[in-house]
Structure formats: C-alpha cells, structure tokens
Amino acid sequence: xxxxxxxxxxxxxxxxxxxxxxxxxxxxxxxxERQYEHAQMQLCPNCGGEVTxxxxxxxxxxxxxxxxxxxxxxxxxxxxxxxxxxxQYSKEMxxxxxxxxxxxxxxxxxxxLSEVRLNTITGEYIPFWMYxxxxxxxxxxxxxxxxxWVSGNTEYTEHAYYHVVRDMSIEFAGIxxxxxxxxxxxxxxxxxxYNYKELVPFQPEYLSGFLGEKxxxxxxxxxxxxxxxxxSSAAAMLQQSITGxxxxxxxxxxxxxxAPDTEFDLLPVWVYRYTYKDQEYxxxxxxxxxxxxxxxxxxxxxxxxxxxxxWACLTAIIVMIGYLLL
Amino acid sequence: MENDFKREARKQYLHFFRFWxxxxxxxxxxxxxxxxxxxxxxxxxxxxxxxxxxxxxYDYADMLTxxxxxxxxxxIAEKEAQIGCxxxxxxxxxxxxxxxxxxxxxxxxxxWEQNMQDIADDFYDNNCYGFDxxxxxxxxxxxxxxxxxxxxxxxxxxxxFARFGDxxxxxxLTRVDQYIxxxxxxxxxxxxxxxxxxxxxxxNSIGIVVLLAVFVPIITAxxxxxxxxxxxxxxxxxxxxxxxxxxxxxxxQQRDDFIRKSVSQRRIQNSSSSxxxxxxxxxxxxxxxxxxxxHGGGSHRR
Lengths: 326, 302
Fold this sequence. Notes:
- Chain A contains five helices and 15 strands.
- Chain A is of the alpha+beta class.
- Among the domains of chain A are: 127-295, no CATH class; 299-326.
- Chain A is flat and about 95 Å long.
- The model of chain A has no long low-confidence stretch (mean pLDDT 92).
- By secondary structure, chain B is an alpha/beta fold.
- Chain B has a domain at 57-204: Diaminopimelate Epimerase, Chain A, domain 1 (Roll), CATH 3.10.310.50.
- Chain B is 47% helix and 17% strand.
- Chain B is built from nine helices and seven strands; from the N terminus they run ααβαβααββααααβββ.
- In chain B, helix 7 runs antiparallel to helix 8.
- At the A-B interface, strand 8, strand 9, helix 3, helix 4 and strand 15 of A face helix 1, helix 2, helix 9 and strand 5 of B.
- Strand 9 of chain A pairs antiparallel with strand 5 (250-267) of chain B.
C-alpha cells in the first residue's frame, strides 16, 4: 500500500515532529488515504518503476518517484507487529544530533558531517522479539565475615560463619533481541534501552516515510540472546542481595525460568552508512532516545598534520621561552 | 565538492590551532624585540663602582707572559661586561703555612687554608672590587705557586657568593688544577670562563631547555594523537535492572544464620627506619673577612 494525500495526491508520511500523518507537498495534516492495497509490488504502483527488495523487507522507497511503499502481506497475519515505537527524532533532528556529537572529532574526514553525506541517513524500523521471563533465583552457601583488631601488640582475627539462603523471584519484561540479520547484534544491544511507555499498537501508517522489515527469524531461534541478558541481570541481582561477607562458599546456586512469553515489535533506528576509503562506517541512532552508536573513521592525513603542527608549536614556544628567560 | 571539503578542512585546521598560532606569533614578536634590545645592550652592563683600580691581573708570581696577561685582561673585560661581576686574578709565590710564615707576613693563623682565604679576601676588599659597588659583585682567583704550599683559592662576593655553592667553587678550582702544570694561561682562562658561564645562567639551564624542547612536544603530540585516535562505538546504557518489572526482584526468602566463629591471634613486630638527605645551592664556604665583608670561597691545594 501507499499512503496518498487526499488533497494533492502526494505521498503522506508519518512526521515524528507533528506525531501525525503529514503531506510534505501541500502541508496537509492527517490527509492520508490508503491506496494500492495488496497490489503487485514488482513495479511501483505509483510510477511503474521497477522496485527491488529482500525477502524480509516490509517497507521501502521507490528509487524513481521516492514514494514509500508498504508490502501488505508482510505486516499482516503472523507478521503483524504487536506494538511499535514510532520515530521521535526526525531526519533533521538526527542530523543535528550527529553533528553535535562528532563536531569534536578532529580527525574525522571533513565530509563526514557534510550536508551531502548526512542526507543519506535512513530511518528504519527494526524487528525485535521481546521476551518476558518469570525467573527464580535460589542460593545456599556458607559466608564468612572476617574482622580483625589490635590490642597491645597482638593482632586478633575473627572468622564468623553464616548459613546464607536466598530465594528470589524476578519478573523480566521486554528483554529485546533484534530479529534482523543485517543489524549487528552488539550494536543493537548498545542502542538500548528504549522507553517502552511509548510503545503503541501497530498501524501501517507509522511505516510510511521509513524503511522496515518483518522478523527475519522466529523467536525461538534467537531466544538464547535474551536468555543470556536475563541470566546476567539475575546473577547481578543475586550478587547484590548477598553483602557484608568477606568470602562466600556457594553450595547451591540456580537461576531458572520457564519458556518466556514473546512479542514481535518494531523499534526505530536511524542509520548513517558513511563510506571512507572504500570502508563502510555505519552509525546507528536510537530513533526514540537519540543515542548514537558508531566509530568515527580517522583521516591519517589529518592525524599527521595536527600532530606535527602541535609538535612544531610546542617546540617553538619552549625554545623561545627558554631563550627569553636565560 | 572536493575543493569545498579541502577549504573546509583548512578552515577547521586554522580554527583548531588559532590560540596556538596567536601564542607563537606573540612570542615570536617578543623574541625578536628582546633580541634586538640584547644586541644593542649586549656587553654593555654599566659599572657602578669607580673606586676600584682598573687592573684585574696581578701576576706577582710571573706565571704568565706579558702577551698572555694582556689576553686575560681582554677576556676578563669582555666577561665582566656580560655578567656584571668583577673578575680578579692574583698569582703569588710565598709561604702561607706554619709559624715562621705567620711571623714573617703577619698572618692570622698558621693554617694554609685560612691564610689563603685571608689574602684573597683582603686583596679584594682593600682594592674595593665589586662591579655594582665597593666590596660588591665579583670573584677573585688567588694562585700560590710556592713550592710545597702551592694551590688555588677562589673568593666569591656579592652575587657570585649568592650563586656559587661548594659544588660550583670546587668545579671552578678543578678547572685550574687541570691545566696549571702545563699551561697556566689556559688554567686561569678556563676558570674565568666557567665562572662567567655559571653567572650568565647558561650551562646547565641550556641543557634543560634542550631536553624540554625535545621531549615535551613529542610526548604531548603523541598523547594528543593517541587520545584522538581512540574512538569507541558507544557506552552501554542498560543496567541489571533495566528490564526488571518494578525495578527490583521480589525476595521470597532471605536468611543469614550465624553458625560459629573462631578467633586467631598474632604478635606484631615493630620496625622503624629513618633517612637523611643532602641539599645544595649558593653561599658555598660563607664567612666574614677581616674587613667585615661577606665572602664565600674554597681552596684546592696541590
């Protein structure tokens, strides 16, 4: 489907600033109308140009007429996302965020923050599986509290032994794991956390103006990632609850959880794929919180120029001061 | 577009180093100014003391040829103007030790060292030497070549006294010792050059400046480059409680039951230590001359 403006026939898109559908061509708000529902999408239904996409794509942009196309069958049925966090940051806002964050990166190539390059950023809805765990932590062990004091010229050391028992229930809600093959897992983890209070029921309107994917794999296939996050968090909680001991000898320690409840949601990410000397430096921005993840490329020419200049200035200053003082 | 980026890069570069360039520029201007002033005023320090004689080289022991004496006078005149200190050389050949010498010459004591010091100080004071004022800034080298009692004494006064510690005095006298047997002229001029070097502040300080100028910029530039090269993808911003509903776990059971305890003891052995240190600076061999003026100094006996 394509969202068309009733007033001018332009492509209506979701505006993060206005938080509603908006036509950038005639400035109409909420003037959208679904067209070309369930149409064949080998060709753009708007301009007839050939469009290409992968097996997971659910939303794309026609390279000829720039209309945003949503593939109905990939946001329906089993592929219907339960909830979505709509983009809170618009393209302009994200460009400013990136400029602000990296303006101090002296050695980044000059065009890194240029308007031309920054305009290539794309807003993408990433498929996520959310896992809810009902976790139980059990612990039994022997703890030692060591205390020492000095009286006269004798040092006394006391070891007190305790039987320690902990039984904890932890409710985990919404541990995310991205269900997209093209997104690096570690990077997606660094983009967390999202504020789930802004999760709203899914509507295809939110996809208009952005790219999107359905989940690339089912929830069971990547459950281990969420499980690992759950386990390390539970272990930390357990650790925190046992304090005041000099040493602890665990006799029994277990973290268990029955199969989790899962939910398929879409979360917003801005992607800036910057290429420098044939190498890609991808930057990811949390579309809700604005958190930026990515490594800036380094221009070796700049490193040498700046390092050498600093060296020359310092040498000149020291030599001249030395000359003036002596 | 490429040219735009190049222009932008140049702009960023100049912006980044603007304060550095300004500092270097100002320093350069000051340096040029100071250099010009120094060239004009160099070797031209103004002598304030008119009471002292103009003679600086008293070669009573005839250690030097007339030609060498003249060369020494020129050297001394040049150095005096640079450092603003009177430099006097006195060579003698007379006994300065023992009761007989004391009676003959009316010395204060029978000690070689004491008498050398007295002769040097008195010669300086009686002639009212001192660049800034009588008994003021300067130094006197007294060389005695009397057989069995030969040696050199350096008497310091005023700012030479303030600057010269035992170490510097020893170094100055060592210059004399090194060459006196083979070439007295070289011995005295080396000693005078050493004093002038020390008093003009060059010598050690130049080494320190060179050292600073070589290492500080290299290290700083390396640190600068290293810190800017280091780039991280991002900080983790989730915590252990991020995905816990309600923010904390529910504790079903929590027990810490005391079982038993044991106490052990150990004797403590006391130990203590102490240390000492050295210090150095100016005012080496400080004393007061018979005329009541402050001098410093020291001797090397051969």
